Each structure stands twice: as structure tokens, then as C-alpha cells.
From TrEMBL:
It comes from Amphritea atlantica. InterPro entries: Ald_DH/histidinol_DH, Ald_DH_C, Ald_DH_CS_GLU, Ald_DH_N, Aldehyde_DH_dom, DH_HpaE. NCBIfam families: HpaE. Residues 32-492 form the Aldehyde dehydrogenase domain. The keyword Zinc does not apply. This is 5-carboxymethyl-2-hydroxymuconate semialdehyde dehydrogenase.
């Protein structure tokens, strides 16, 4: 064990001690409470050891959080945008103060390598600062002129909203949803994933330290079947923003039907990375490896299908095999680790089941395809895996595995690539590698996805829209698209007193 790893483990144990010693509760109306429900154990995917007990919210606990958000809604909506900006900037400052703590807690809670989590607080702070700066103008609309009327639009916050976030990169995705909601003037009830709940409590503590009024930010822990269902069905909640899988999205859409809540659903994907013969070989190779094996492959925008043109296939796959075999799997707190343990034993079982499915489908396991528990102990470790000789109708090419597993499929022509890319129920993201500008433009129009990157890995741009099509979701995040979701638009039409008013009954 390296000196740096020993030092990191010692620091992490210090940050995690309070969670082991005290049950993690809910944050409701500015107070921490254990609520009225039972507790469940939270464990680390590194070795299944105990991280602490977590309170599971009941329907009564969720009701209390929603009522607190409703009571605070009018006051927060009336708070000037400039004041909201100051508070949210302070929140960003609080996050950066606790950056190391956030990174280490998140690494041990969800298994992500520390090298990726070190930027979690920085990215979270950037989310709050970006949307904070938009808060003073968030209500502004359009001016639309006619010959005898002038129309203008104004926007107002919806009120209390629910934010339900996943376990894969919980901290950053929570800030990505909550920051624009608060900047818009909405109050929030946040339900983090039960598999990785710890950093959500740090977020709530930072919000309190930044001076958010009581009831503006509420957080409940627990399970989707109880807490999530109660939250999405509560009449005070005006909108639900979810990051999760498509099955959960379907449930929430059904649960919100009776109250006609506004929905933003960022769901699953089986995203293609399309590499043409004329691509920049080295840059494309780097991007292909990074976009599936970083974050343990547990990334909604990961490129889990490699569509590789026949002329470059053999050379590219040879280089790819060497790179995948060289990826370092290890302790999430080790600075050298590139892939850590999968988040939970249930998810580990799901990912490893595809090793046998690949064989049944008729694909070849070129690299990996096995558990590492015999070598690395009881943690949820698997080898970074590459499937080759695959066809697009195989389960490994159609189903979201959500792990460090890549499926390679050969194609001949541009038309073949488009067909393969689009033959899926998903449509979140796609990546195109070619030096032909015309082809890049054609592909950009033809590939069915909410987001496409050309000659690049996933590059985050906060003003740009983020979201999917087909079974990958409904709606868009980012920039003004976020405010359109969290705010209601009203049109006002003012006559110039020059038009003729229709007359009846005279």
C-alpha cells in the first residue's frame, strides 16, 4: 500500500466517522430529524463494510418536507434575484471549503475513483455560481410586437419541486438539478439515492451555512417505493426532476399523472461512439477508452457501443485491447486507481451477468469478463471488459449494462453507421469521430440523440441543453432550458387602443 493511499484512507476515516457514529436523518424546515421510520444500513462497495445507519423516510416525513417547502415558497419567490445570487454564491464557497471531504466521502460511498471525485465539489460550486448569476434575470421574458397590440412574457417560479437523484455521481448531479431550481425561486425537496446518500447531507449543511431560509431546501432519505412515491404524488409538489433509469422514469410518470406535474426525466442510454476510417486515431482511441471506463462505466452519457468502420477495425481493436487490459482497478482512494468497485452488490450481480450473456449472444470476450473478488476480496470489483464480434441485435448491444463494459460492432458505410446508431430504444448521447466535415454534419442531423459530440469526449457546457430522446428522457437541463422547466411563462397582451373591438347584440 502506497504512502498516499494510507494517508487518504486515514483522512477518509476521519470524515466518515460521524456517519458511523450517528444515524443520518432528514433535513426538514431547517432542522435535522430522524423522522418516524426505521433505519437501514449503508455499506461501502470497497469491502461491504459498515458506513452507518440511514433513516428511511415515511409518508409522514415526506409530507412534512413538502409542507415546509410550500410554506417557504412565497417568501423565496419574492426574494430579489440579486439576493438569491449572493446566497447561492456563498453556497458555492461552502462547497469548495469542503472539497476534500466531499471527494473522499463520495468515493467510499459509491466506489468512484478519487481521481474523478476530486472535481466533484468544484463542478458543484460551478453549477451554483453559473445559475446564481442568471437569477436576477430569470423572470425576464420576450417582447412581441403587433400593429395594434404589444405582447410581453414574464416568468414566475413554479413553487415547491422534487429533485430525485441517482447513485452514480450523486453530488454533482444533485447540484446540477438543485442550483437552477433555487436560482429560479423554487423551493426544493431532495431525495438522494438510498445507495449513496452521504454527500447529500453535506450539501444540505452547506446550504444552511450559506444562509438559505428555513424550508427552502429540504432533504429526505429513503426508498423510492415509499419516500419517492409519496414525494412524486404530493399535491404541493409542482414538478419532478429525475436522473435515473428508464424503468424508474415510467413509474414516476404514472405516479404524477393524477396531479399533472411537470416532469424532467433524464434516463438511460446505450450511447454509440462512431469511429470512421479517417478519424484521428490516437485522439479517438483516448476518447473511446475514457468515455466508457471512467466513472466505473456508471455514467449516463458513457459510450457503451463502439461502432468501428471496417477499414480501421483490426488496428483500432488491437490498440483498444491493450489499453483496456492496462486499466488499473483498485481502491477508490488510491490516486493510481482508474476503475473502482461497482456501487452495490445488486448492481455487481447485474453487470457480471452480462459476461455469460455475451457468450450466449455469440460475442467474444476480448478483454476481461470476470469478477475480481477472488483477487481483491469482497468488494464489487470487476475487470474492465471489451466484447467484440458483436451484432447490434444482441442483448449486450441493446441493454444498458451501466458498468465498465464496451461492446464493439463493425460497420462498412456511413448509412450502416446511422442505422446501427439509431436501432435502439434509447437516444441520450452519441459521439462521432471523422475528419470529414460534411460527414460530421450529416451524421449530426441523422443520429437520434439529444446530444452529440463530434471529435470530442463528453464536454460539459453549462449554457447548452442536456437531455435525451426516445426512452432516454423528456425535457432539457442547462442554461435557460432549466429556467423554462422550473418557471411558468405568462403572456400579457396590451392593446394600443386603436383596433376595432367586435360588437354583438347592439
Amino acid at each position: 500500500m502506497s504512502t498516499q493511499l494510507q494517508e487518504n484512507i486515514g483522512k477518509a476515516e476521519g470524515y466518515l466517522a460521524r456517519f458511523k457514529d450517528n444515524t443520518l436523518g432528514h433535513y426538514i424546515n431547517g432542522e435535522w430529524t430522524l423522522g418516524s421510520g426505521e433505519t437501514f444500513d449503508n455499506t461501502t462497495p470497497f469491502d461491504q463494510s459498515f458506513l452507518g445507519k440511514v433513516a428511511a423516510a415515511t409518508e409522514d416525513d415526506v409530507n412534512a418536507a413538502c409542507e415546509a417547502a410550500q410554506a417557504a415558497a412565497a417568501g423565496w419567490a419574492a426574494t430579489p434575484g440579486a439576493e438569491r445570487r449572493k446566497i447561492l454564491h456563498r453556497l458555492g464557497d461552502e462547497l469548495e471549503k469542503r472539497a476534500e471531504e466531499i471527494a473522499m466521502v463520495e468515493s467510499m460511498d459509491c466506489g468512484q475513483a478519487l481521481r474523478f471525485m476530486r472535481q466533484a465539489a468544484v463542478r458543484g460550486a460551478a453549477n451554483f455560481r453559473f445559475f446564481a448569476d442568471q437569477a436576477p434575470e430569470a423572470r425576464n421574458g420576450l417582447s412581441l410586437h403587433q400593429a395594434e397590440h404589444t405582447n410581453f412574457t414574464v416568468r414566475s417560479p413554479l413553487g415547491p419541486v422534487a429533485v430525485i437523484t441517482p447513485w452514480n455521481t450523486p453530488f454533482m448531479l444533485s447540484t446540477w438539478k438543485i442550483a437552477p431550481a433555487l436560482a429560479a425561486g423554487c423551493t426544493v425537496v431532495h431525495k438522494p439515492a438510498e445507495l449513496s446518500p452521504l454527500t447529500a447531507s453535506i450539501l444540505a449543511e452547506c446550504a444552511e451555512a450559506a444562509g438559505l431560509p428555513k424550508g427552502v431546501w429540504n432533504m429526505v432519505n429513503g426508498f423510492g417505493t415509499v419516500a419517492g412515491k409519496a414525494l412524486t404524488q404530493h399535491p404541493a409538489i409542482k414538478a419532478v426532476a429525475l436522473v435515473g433509469d428508464s424503468a424508474t422514469g415510467k413509474l414516476i410518470q404514472a405516479q404524477t399523472a393524477q396531479t399533472l406535474k411537470r416532469l424532467h426525466l433524464e434516463l438511460g442510454g446505450k450511447n454509440p461512439v462512431i469511429v470512421f476510417d479517417d478519424a484521428d486515431f490516437d485522439r479517438a482511441l483516448d476518447a473511446v477508452v475514457f468515455m466508457i471506463y471512467s466513472l466505473n462505466g456508471q455514467r449516463c452519457t458513457s459510450s457503451s457501443r463502439l461502432l468501428i468502420q471496417s477499414g480501421i477495425k483490426d488496428k483500432f481493436l488491437t490498440a483498444l485491447k491493450a489499453r483496456v487490459a492496462n486499466i488499473k482497478v483498485g481502491h477508490p482512494l488510491d490516486p493510481e486507481t482508474e476503475v473502482g468497485p461497482l456501487v452495490h452488490t445488486g448492481h455487481y450481480d447485474k453487470v457480471t451477468s452480462y459476461f455469460e450473456i455475451a457468450k450466449q449472444d455469440g460475442a467474444t470476450i476480448a478483454v476481461g469478463g470476470k469478477s475480481l473478488r477472488d483477487e481483491m476480496g469482497p468488494g464489487n470489483f470487476v475487470t474492465p471488459t471489451l466484447f467484440v464480434d458483436a451484432k447490434n441485435d444482441m442483448r449486450i448491444a441493446q441493454e444498458e449494462i451501466f458498468g465498465p463494459v464496451l461492446t464493439a460492432i463493425e460497420f462498412d458505410t456511413e448509412e450502416d453507421a446511422i442505422k446501427l446508431a439509431n436501432e435502439t430504444v434509447y437516444g441520450l448521447a452519441g459521439y462521432i469521430w471523422t475528419s470529414n466535415t460534411g460527414r460530421a454534419m450529416r451524421m449530426a442531423h441523422a443520429v437520434e440523440a439529444g446530444m452529440l459530440w463530434v471529435n470530442s469526449e463528453n464536454n460539459r457546457n453549462l449554457p447548452s441543453p442536456f437531455g435525451g430522446v426516445k426512452m432516454s428522457g423528456i425535457g432539457r437541463d442547462g442554461g435557460d432550458w432549466s429556467f423554462d422547466f422550473y418557471m411558468e411563462t405568462k403572456n400579457v397582451c396590451i392593446a394600443h387602443d386603436t383596433h376595432k373591438v367586435p360588437v354583438l347584440g347592439r
